[in-house]
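Severity: low
Component: inverse-folding endpoint
Summary: output formatting inconsistent between runs
Steps to reproduce: submit the following structure tokens with default settings.
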């Protein structure tokens, strides 16, 4: 039997496809290099993703700083805080006394005016304002006012206050305050006002004595304080007589007119002439004579 060879056509397309498939299955050189382990990549941390949001710090309450806290305090609250701190730490009291501004006449009088307003508002409505009932109602406010006056007066006296003009200005207003104190019906209650007049008179006397030693006493001679003191003495019923006598002593030594005699028209003219001489305007209103005298 003769075998006849049969030619089988070669499918080039399938062969090529199998070849491509084989080639795809084999790892390429670049892939082999990329999949090889790298020690540096395992040791180095990965950077955070740029799309991650930054974490915000939580909002929490906290107390005010000291400067802001002090801004919220009024005068009374701040004074209470300072007094409490000074009681616990006595050494701070001296530091505050040296650091705080020196009280002026205006600031001291403002405090006294505040106490006086409290006293006036404490009176009961209707009835006799000088009665014992009214006194019992306002007594705490009255004591507070008198204690404040007693504390402030020495501050404006020499040698603590070197300027006589400041001392006299404070005493002038302080004496007006004493005039406005009630005249109680009971003698025992009136002792408050009488004793205050006595202390004010001694303060006037001290200031006049010290002022007379400086610059020839010009402050008391030409400042009109003699007339003001005379008015205060009259309104007090003569309770400032000690100070008036001290004023007379210095005015007599300097050639001035005694206080108790400066009530008439002639004395008023002398006072006006003295003021014009001091200011340099004396004779400016007199006619000018032309020709022989």
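Observed output (run 2 of 3):
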């Amino acid at each position: 039997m003769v075998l006849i060879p049969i030619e089988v056509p070669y499918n080039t397309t399938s062969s090529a496809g199998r070849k491509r498939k084989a080639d795809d299955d084999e790892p390429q050189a670049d892939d082999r290099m990329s999949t090889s382990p790298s020690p540096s990549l395992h040791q180095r941390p990965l950077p955070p993703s740029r799309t991650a949001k930054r974490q915000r710090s939580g909002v929490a309450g906290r107390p005010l700083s000291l400067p802001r806290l002090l801004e919220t305090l009024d005068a009374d609250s701040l004074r209470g805080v300072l007094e409490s701190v000074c009681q616990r730490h006595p050494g701070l009291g001296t530091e505050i006394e040296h650091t705080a501004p020196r009280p002026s006449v205006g600031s001291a009088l403002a405090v006294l005016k505040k106490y006086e307003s409290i006293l006036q508002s404490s009176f009961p409505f209707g009835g006799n304002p000088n009665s014992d009932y009214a006194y019992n109602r306002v007594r705490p406010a009255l004591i507070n006012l008198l204690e404040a006056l007693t504390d402030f007066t020495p501050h404006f006296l020499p040698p603590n206050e070197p300027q006589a003009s400041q001392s006299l200005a404070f005493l002038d207003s302080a004496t007006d305050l004493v005039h406005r104190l009630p005249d109680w019906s009971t003698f025992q209650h009136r002792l408050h006002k009488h004793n205050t007049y006595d202390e004010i008179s001694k303060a006037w006397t001290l200031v006049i004595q010290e002022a007379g030693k400086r610059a020839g006493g010009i402050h008391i001679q030409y400042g009109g304080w003699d007339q003001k003191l005379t008015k205060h003495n009259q309104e007090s019923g003569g309770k400032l007589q000690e100070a008036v006598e001290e004023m007379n002593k210095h005015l007599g030594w300097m050639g001035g007119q005694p206080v108790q005699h400066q009530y008439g028209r002639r004395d008023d003219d002398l006072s006006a002439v003295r003021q014009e001489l001091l200011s340099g305007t004396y004779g400016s209103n007199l006619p000018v004579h032309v020709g022989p005298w």
